[in-house]
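Q: Convert this sequence to structure tokens.
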Amino acid sequence: MDKKCIYMDHAATTYVKPEVLEAMLPYYTEKFGNPSSIYFIGRESKKAIEAARDKVALAIGAKSREIFFTGSGTEADNWAIKGIAYANEDKGKHIITTSIEHHAVLHTCQYLESEGFEVTYLPVDENGLVSPEQVRDAIKPQTILVSIMFANNEIGTIEPIAEIGKITKEKGVYFHTDAVQAIGNVPINVEEMNIDLLSLSAHKFYGPKGIGALYIRRGVKLTSFVHGGAQERGRRASTENIAGIVGLGEAIQIAANNIDKNNKKLIELRDRTIQEVYKSIPFVKLNGHPEKRLPGNVNFSFEFIEGESLLLMLDAKGIAASSGSACTSGSLDPSHVLLAIGLPHEIAHGSLRLTFGDKNTNEDVDLLLNELPGIVKTLRDMSPLFVKEKEGIKNVQ
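A:
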């Protein structure tokens, strides 16, 4: 019998909704035709792709011809940043981003630095917010791209995207946002927010893994990323993942149509968790903006403990959570995001990220709140630093 799991790590990935899977299944069996073929089942596959493209466009306020399917959100980030860089280096080789981006953006920018590009990594405040004025001040005549995430995957802070988009439009600089965590959680309109490129990934909003998309505003100059065929209007070669594309389209339509209802529930779970943890556990800090944050995101730092031990003990109680982004969960280094908001190493190591989803209930939160204080106490009782703290010797600032 499978062990029961209370899943509180939806920022890492989500399950595939039954209606999404149902929409996908025919494209693994009878509707398997290659969309590049002219016969009937090929044309049917092509129609399914275009229907999904329409759904993605509608969800973010774009035009269908501005949506290009990719293999993941990471690929979409790579394409946006490298594509702009290589297509516009005759204008300049300066890129602006932030210190708290997902590694899909940070590592891509670091790669471009090795290729001779200059990258400015803007700092954030103690809540993880970047200042629009900092963006304005960092733009130079050689700046070709600003890439700032819509919402942070670890601490949940939602960035001032519309204000930044206004600045980049005024300055004539392309603006890319990694919206992988925001889609389905925050209303987005690329036209109103002056976004030129936007990355998304289906598995963050109850769609399948291995499929993402990049919005490219019409007229944006960027190079193709994958060569070898004429798919995606000649801009991204390879035979299309039809079932994945159909699943992405279905999932984003469901998410967009239910965003207000879902957010109301997630905010209630989030705020209750924050309030009760503060009441029951001392030496705890909420990371991220207290209000401008994703509806289902809670990120705490607990002094005097290691986050990995906390996760293992929660797992033993049937609660799946995280100490940071899924892509770095195997690392012994503290989160670059938590360090960027000013936490010292020893406190950053004691972080816990809880991200709620549509199946989580108040009963799940009850169990978490019942188990978490005892687990923290057990770990602190084994900590020499906490023993000294109880004796009145302050070792953590």
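The longest strand covers residues 297-302.
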